[in-house]
Design goal:
The complex is a heterodimer of chains A (about 675) and B (about 150). With about 675 residues, chain A is mainly alpha-helical. Chain A has helices at about 10-20, 25-30, 45-65, 75-85, 90-115, 125-145, 150-165, 170-180, 185-220, 235-260, 290-300, 305-315, 320-325, 335-355, 360-390, 400-405, 410-430, 455-470, 495-505, 535-540, 555, 565-570, 575-585, 635-650, 655-680; strands at about 35, 235, 505-510, 520, 605, 610-615. Chain A starts with 11 loop residues before the first helix and ends with a helix. Chain B is α+β, with helices and mostly antiparallel strands. Chain B contains 3 helices and 10 strands. Chain B has helices at about 1-10, 20-25, 55-65, and strands at about 25-30, 40-45, 45-55, 85-90, 100-105, 110, 120, 125-130, 140-145, 145-150. In chain B, strands 5-6-7-8 form a 4-stranded antiparallel sheet, with no helix packed on it. Classes of the chains: A mainly alpha (about 675), B alpha+beta (about 150). The interface of A and B includes residues 163, 177, 180, 302 and 359 of A.
Chain lengths: ~675, ~150
């Protein structure tokens, strides 16, 4: 709150309130009249972006909490119920999940901005430390949030990270038991993570208030690193910064919308569409992308306790930055050596992120160790050294002078660097998948791919027939109800047809008044019944193997696309790994090659990881006949069943893409309007 | 002092509650269905426990390894119950980062952890890979020759 409060309201109501609680004056002096340096660039819009993201996460989070059940037996299904049945539930869930990634992306940009321009230096040390506290709270919140859907990655990520505390000598195991509330990650753990995940964002909001207060005491930093001296150096926050922030926010929203509507699972892990199973560990446990650099540092140190200390130190070292870098020149713009090392540091962070997703073998381990040393060396050796030996270039006399001077358009190349870096990290989260798999499922063409993709109704109906006649003998489809067959964006049956379809099934119901269970014909509200009453019966009938529920299989299976393909995938919206995989498996049965040993009771499949699949070939030519004259061939079956299963996994896809188009058109127009308004407002200030 | 004392209930509630402790009560496992060379996995206190009926070959191999060469030195004898040497009972959680190793895999006819490649022998001792310690032994005792109580 620097600068005098010159708020003089004329409205009598506002005057009345103002005298009793000067809130209007506070808002006015902080966000309207507040003097902001006139030479700020777009890296300064991320503070506003972050405030918006915190608000959005809290809003979508509170709403999701109205529908979510934090119990280990019910959590996974409750999330699917949100996505399938709650009005716009899919939108809220996608906003919240993608929002977490966007929140972290923005915070990293915000932090790197602070690093580059020396925003942590005197008198902004407390501001910076408050920021580190916010960052720590964000990491805790994000970690607990990811556990809530109770998928495989949720459960095992929780196991690995809570196990870290066992590294503490003497009290480690007691602390872990305390955190778990049991003898392993289980229901008590999930419940308390939900409670804390709800709480922490409000703590973050509180620290953000302190953060903004500390900011306003010192005033904002600026690209020149020279403090504002006269009125010529600043402009009032409204309308100048407000409109610039609005433009920055609208561009950011376009990027955000791309994930929400078109690539909702790009940053996630397919394994999290498998319900948590304490008895089966996924082959690759990978945290979300925003934790990857720290995960890499953790795994680089061979000693368990030292690794944990190194990981936490990597974050805590940030808090000491004002005392590690004591150079008088604030902005790296005028520090040629510091500038170069800054960009090297950025590359180190990106590479550490990439390594965090790789299996810790061979060259990855060596690279991880070297880069960990580089990371710490930057803070503990390089910056203090540069403070002493570097000769900086002369800084401008004032902000006003800086605005008048011309500087080059480096911004564009930096943005490109960030996009590539971001793509690398995002894609590396996918690289952990099945390195061992040599045969990559061929890419087929699907009617539902791309921004305007739709499900082929005929294909869905044929897929349903295949499921009913063949697959349903062993595989459940328990997230699909008969009424879904009449939903828009689905197989396109009428309500009457769906009811007729349902009545063919016998559903167990009861107890009746005599206390007995009984069978009755199915109704639209019923879900597809499972072929077996429980897991043990399913295993007994299938040679010990458990045929998975197929409702989510098209999203629960994936494979590596490799570098740089995964970067192109982001722009082409490629996300059909699941259907490609399902189709490939069905057609991938082959004669066992010579010299290969298959465990008893398994069959050779070209595309199944490890090649030994317990399921015998389920479909052969001529097995299912179609009324619409489509060929009764295996490739046709594979295509139709994969399409049907993609719909079963994501019945709301067409609605998602449709709304996405509308949102994109709006946002692009809105961003354009903001841009021109910004140019107009700033016309006299530059 | 009063401040600390009043804080204790808030901390203590985080520890396992009565029903969790009760669910973690000891269990009995019948060993008769497990043939020589086979193993089963049971759950106790949420953790997987491998019960392995080792062949003579596995026991001899485990006992012929020089103990000082092991990353976490321990004799095979110290990890089994006297008079029941073929029975190995270990908690199937890799001591590295908590994944479940696969039985009868790896170079030592023991356990192989698919997450980061740790390999344990037929005595559940770490032989190679990033795991720092041997597979832990849960508390158990033989109530008869064919039955054990875990916990």
């Amino acid at each position: 709150m620097s600068g005098p409060s010159d708020f003089q309201p004329t409205n009598p109501v506002i005057k009345w309130i103002e005298r009793r609680l000067p809130i209007f004056g506070l808002v006015h002096s902080s966000f309207v009249a507040y003097p902001t340096p006139r030479n700020l660039n777009y890296w300064w819009t991320f503070g506003a972006i972050l405030s918006m993201m915190l608000g959005l996460q809290i809003l979508t989070g509170v709403i999701l909490a109205m529908h979510y059940t934090p119990n280990a037996d019910l959590a996974f299904r409750s999330v699917e119920a949100i996505v399938r049945d709650v009005n716009y539930g899919w939108l809220l869930r996608n906003m919240h999940a993608a929002g977490a990634s966007m929140f972290f992306l923005a915070v990293y940009v915000h932090m790197f901005r602070g690093l580059y321009y020396g925003s942590y230096k005197e008198p902004r040390e407390v501001l910076w430390i408050l920021g580190v506290i916010i960052y720590l709270l964000m990491m805790a919140t994000g970690f607990m949030g990811y556990v809530l859907p109770w998928g495989q990655m949720s459960f095992w990520g929780a196991t690995v990270i809570t196990n870290l505390f066992s590294a503490i000598p003497y009290v480690g195991d007691s602390i872990v038991t305390l955190l778990w509330g049991g003898y392993s990650v289980g229901n008590p753990t999930l419940n308390r993570f939900f409670s804390l995940h709800y709480l922490l964002p409000f703590l973050i909001a509180g620290v953000v208030v302190l953060h903004v207060w500390a900011l306003h005491v010192a005033g904002q930093n600026n690209p020149a690193g020279v403090e504002a001296k006269t009125e010529k150096d600043t402009v009032p926050f409204t309308p100048y910064a407000t409109i610039k922030d609005m433009f920055g926010v609208s561009c950011f929203l376009i990027f955000y919308a791309w994930f929400i509507f078109y690539m909702p699972n790009y940053l996630g892990d397919a394994d999290n569409y498998i319900p948590a199973n304490p008895g089966v560990t996924p082959a690759h446990i990978v945290p979300e992308w925003y934790y990857l650099p720290f995960y890499a540092i953790l795994r680089s140190i061979p000693n368990k306790l030292a690794g944990v200390i190194a990981m936490f130190s990597a974050i805590v070292v940030l808090a000491f930055l004002p005392w590690l870098d004591t150079a008088k020149t604030r902005s790296s713009k005028y520090r040629p050596l510091a500038k170069q090392f800054f960009w090297i540091f950025v590359v180190v962070c990106v590479l550490l992120g990439y390594l965090g997703a790789q299996p810790p073998e061979g060259i990855y381990v060596i690279a991880g160790r070297i880069l960990t040393v580089c990371y710490f060396a930057y803070f503990l050796i390089l910056l203090p050294l540069l403070s002493r030996i570097e000769t900086p270039r002369p800084v401008p006399n004032s902000i006003a002078d800086d605005v008048l001077a011309k500087y080059g358009k480096k911004a564009a190349s930096i943005v490109v660097a960030f996009v590539v870096a971001g793509g690398l990290i995002a894609g590396s989260a996918q690289n952990a998948r099945a390195q061992e798999q040599e045969a990559v499922p061929p890419s087929q063409s699907w009617s539902f791919s791309g921004p305007f993709g739709k499900y082929d109704r005929g294909s869905l109906q044929r897929g349903l027939k295949i499921y009913k006649e063949v697959c349903s003998n062993c595989h459940a489809l328990s997230y699909i109800a008969f009424r879904n067959l009449a939903d828009p964006g689905g197989p396109g049956y009428s309500v009457a047809q769906a009811a007729a379809f349902a009545s063919d099934y016998k559903i167990k119901d009861g107890p009746n008044d005599a206390g007995d269970m009984f069978d009755r014909p199915g109704r639209p509200a019923d879900y597809f019944p499972s072929p077996f009453p429980n897991e043990q019966a399913a295993r007994a009938a299938n040679g010990g193997g458990l045929p998975p529920d197929l409702s989510l299989i098209a999203k629960a299976r994936s494979y590596e696309r490799g570098f740089p393909q995964f970067i192109f995938d982001f722009f082409t919206q490629f996300q059909e790994q699941g259907p490609n995989y399902v189709s490939a498996i069905l057609q991938g049965y082959q004669k066992k090659p010579a010299g290969v040993d298959l465990p008893e009771g398994t069959y050779y499949n070209k595309y199944f990881p490890g090649h030994a699949i317990k399921m015998p070939q389920p479909l052969t030519n001529g097995q299912v006949t179609f009324d619409d004259g489509s060929p009764a061939t295996l490739p046709q079956y594979a295509h139709d069943i994969a399409t049907f299963l993609m719909w079963a996994a994501e019945p709301q896809m067409e609605a998602r893409k449709h709304l996405g188009l509308q949102v994109f058109v709006f946002l692009i127009i809105f961003a354009g309007l903001m841009y021109f308004t910004k140019k107009k407002v700033w016309a006299d200030a530059h | 002092m009063g401040g600390v004392a009043s804080l204790w209930p808030f901390v203590s509630q985080m520890n396992p509650d009565a029903s969790t402790i009760a669910a973690g009560a000891p269990i009995e496992v019948d060993l008769t269905p497990i043939a020589s060379g086979q193993d089963i996995k049971v759950f106790w206190r949420g953790k997987p426990i491998y019960i392995m009926n080792r062949t003579k070959k596995q026991v001899d191999e485990a006992r012929s390894v020089p103990v000082s060469s092991l990353p976490d030195p321990a004799t095979d004898q110290s990890r089994v119950k006297e008079g029941h040497d073929q029975w190995l009972v270990v908690i199937g959680i890799c001591t590295h980062l908590g994944c479940i190793p696969i039985a009868h895999e790896g170079n030592y006819d023991g356990f192989f952890c698919p997450c980061h490649g740790s390999q344990y022998d037929a005595s559940g001792r770490i032989r190679q890979g990033p795991a720092p310690a041997n597979l832990p032994i849960p508390p158990y005792q033989f109530v008869s020759d064919t039955k054990i109580q875990i916990g």
